[in-house]
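[Meeting: bench + compute handoff]

Bench side (C.D.) handed over the final construct sequence. Compute side (W.E.) agreed to return the predicted structure before the next meeting so the bench team could plan truncations. Sequence as handed over:
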Amino acid sequence: EDRVAEVAERIRRTVAATPVTLDDGKELALTISIGATYHTPGLDEDSMFERADEALYEAKEYGRNRTVMLNAATPTARDEEE
């Protein structure tokens, strides 16, 4: 499970460390936010994507350029509605 977080964080750091050169020669620094979740037995694909999406919104809410992993025990708003 930690492997997912490690890979996501490695991708995030690589993007942040790799500027994009525009046609006019200017460099543009990019950052990304990544939201992911661990597999939760009993949840269908749509529910898993919903959890990853919620993790992404959390990453953006807390300052962007970060990785947020939603663990299997963390309920989402959709989970609480059901």
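W.E. noted at the follow-up: The longest strand covers residues 34-37. C.D. will use this when planning the next construct.
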